[in-house]
Amino acid sequence: MSPTLLRLCRRGFATGVFLLVASGFLSPGAAQVQVEFPALKREYPGSGPYVCPAPATPLDPSPDDQARSSQLSSDSQQALILGDLERVDVLLGQAAELDGTSADLAYRRARVLEDLNRTEQAMQEYCRAIDLGVDEIGVRERDVRDRIDGLYEQIRARLPVAAQQAFVAGLIAADDTLWVDAIESFSGAIDLAPTWADAIYNRALIREYIGDLFGALVDFRAYLAVVANPEDADALAISQRIGELEGAASVATPSPAGALALGVVPGMGQYYTGRPIMGTATLMSAGIAVAAGFMIKDITVLCLEDPPEGQACPPDLIVDEITERPYLWVGIGIGAAITIAGAVEAYLTAKKARDARIGLTTPAETGLNIGVPEVSARGSQIDFAFVRYRFR
After folding, report:
1. In sequence order, what DSSP letters do the residues of 252-300 get, joined into one string?
2. Please, what's the largest Cα pairwise distance for the chain?
3. Is residue 334 predicted with pLDDT exceeding 70?
4. Other Cβ atoms closer than 10 A to 44
5. SS3 for 230?
6. What is the signed CA dihedral for 171, 173, 176, 178, rounded to 10 degrees?
7. Residue 235: is its pLDDT beyond 60?
8. pLDDT recorded at residue 392
């Protein structure tokens, strides 16, 4: 009786893992699940009706503060007669700091800010006046809300539809952890609306998150230059963050040659250049590619007799088992390609960081994209992309 050749393929789970790696589904987002990402600004003119910020609870002023606030309010009336609206705004702002419970001060300042074409600040002051009880000063709340809606319509008209669409695309890409795409989309929105503070803010957050400190620093500075209210909570926090980033940027930048050398070990170049998330993603992608290639097996069983239909060869009739790994070299090749691309990307990142350190004005580009590495550059530098896939 001659042995019967039976082929058993065990590719279920292992094949799924391998295909995920080959398609780029295993992305840096998998390594970022537990990393907290700061909240992006999502509302914009046209996305819905304007919503006033949550009302604050001001403290009652002391008698001295109230007296000083009244004096400043009186001085603002004199400045208004002289037509010095800038002076009026300053005086009313100082008076409101001393007496934050006055709806009259908030409403009067909102009118002045509207005349000065400081639309966003005017809307915020109108909202504050409503919260403090604008009806008590003889102004109908409905009239104030109509003014807010009118100002919001002006902002909406100044913002191109294409810029709004690019902004939304940036949010979608960020939600999918497609950081390069998100930066490109927000950049498109900024190109169409250069003074759109929220788009600049979102791009700055993403650049900082992916390790592009120089680009984030440039964007944070640009945000402060165009933000409507330089004294709001975001602006004050960003002013502090700029100081922190300047301190981080002043630290000696990594060696490009060192980043390339360490990149021989998957992900080590990214760790060396201060981007552990991308380093982990590179290490995982390369490791899983090789592991999947090793796990996928074709097992050939030599059986003395034909087993019953639909059943395996009984153990006592097995002559030999021959194990083959048809995708081993494919997996090793993918792992090697990811490693090489990651090393080159780490080299370019370190080089750009070093080149940009002097002026702190040249934004660094990140090259490792979702799923598999991607190297991007400008000018005389190379532009190398291994594979890039998107899953929406």
Report:
1. PPPPHHHHHHHTTSTTHHHHHTT-HHHHHHHHHHHHHHHHHHHH-EEEE
2. 115
3. yes
4. 20
5. coil
6. -140
7. yes
8. 37
